[in-house]
Amino acid sequence: MEDIEGLRQKLAMANRILVNEHLTELGRGHVVYKLAEDRILIPGHLHDYQRSIADCTASDIVTIDYKGNVVEGRYPESMHEFFFYSAMFRRRKDLKAALHMHAFYSNLLAMSGENLLFSSRDSFLFTKGFKVYSGLPLFVNTEKMGEDMADLLGDRDILLHRGHGVFMVGRSIEEVVTRAAAFERAAFKSYCLRAIGKYFEYTRDEIESSESEEIRSELQESDWGYFLTRVEKKGTIL
Ligand SMILES: [Zn+2]
Q1: How many angstroms separate the alpha carbon of residue 226 from the centre of ligand 1?
Q2: Does the global pTM surpass 0.85?
């Protein structure tokens, strides 16, 4: 049995990290966790109370079912976009966490139709690439839209909704947060290199033959610790 209160605390921290690391504009977006089949931990709809994930606490986390009904927690509604999460969690049993953010440089990739440049370590996690969804409106408001996005994403982990934001799925809260931060850094560097007009890239083969699960998990652990420390220094109260 998982420690639900511990998960709520970790998830609240993960949500704060998105803002603290400047990974999202205007406090939009969120990190969620699949507690069990048909049960997702997600922040309540804080925007209705002039709040955001910037000061998210464990008590702001609610449990919803795959239809978005709050089954536990002190808010009548959760953050939106759950139609996409539900569709992904139904399809892929390996997934435990997901994330949405309005990340500036990542968004530029979708808006310009460009790819990441494989010039630095930040981009090495993304040799499988990403998908771009271009439907309107610029938020996920129906079950069909969530299903369409999930169909497009398939077995990949990153979907960019053009003009809106990034959706990422993964095996843990730590994984989606650290990968989202790496993706945004890689997008920023790609943008700068294209502005310089000259750059070197590693090939996919070079990257895939030199990277290992061990290296990735060590980096993930140290990035997560770094983000956590920076949030804690701001006096976060759980
Ligand atoms: Zn959004």
Answers
A1: 26
A2: yes
Domain presence at residue 23: yes
* Tally of CB atoms within 10 A around 151: 11
User: In angstroms, what CA-CA distances link 120 with 63, 203, 219?
Assistant: 38, 11, 14
Domain that holds residue 146: 4-232
Q: Cα(216) to centroid of ligand 1, in Å?
A: 28
User: What CATH number is given to the structural domain containing 83?
Assistant: 3.40.225.10
Q: Is residue 96 part of a domain?
A: yes
Considering its fold, how many domains does the chain have in total? Answer: 1
For residue 209, tell me if it sits in a domain: yes
CA distance 78 to 49: 12
CA 161 / ligand 1 centre spacing (Å): 9
Ligand 1 centroid vs 116 CA: distance in angstroms?
Answer: 21
How confident is the prediction along the chain (238 residues), in pLDDT tens digits per residue?
579 999 999 999 999 999 999 999 998 999 999 999 999 999 999 999 999 999 999 999 999 999 999 999 999 999 999 999 999 999 999 999 999 999 999 999 999 999 999 999 999 999 999 999 999 999 888 999 999 999 999 999 999 999 999 999 999 999 999 999 999 999 999 999 999 999 999 999 999 898 888 888 999 999 999 999 999 887 554 4
For residue 137, being part of any structural domain is answered with: yes
Element (H, E) at 124: none
* Ligand 1 centroid to residue 218 C-alpha, Å: 30
Q: Return the number of other C-beta atoms located less than 10 Å from residue 25's C-beta.
A: 14
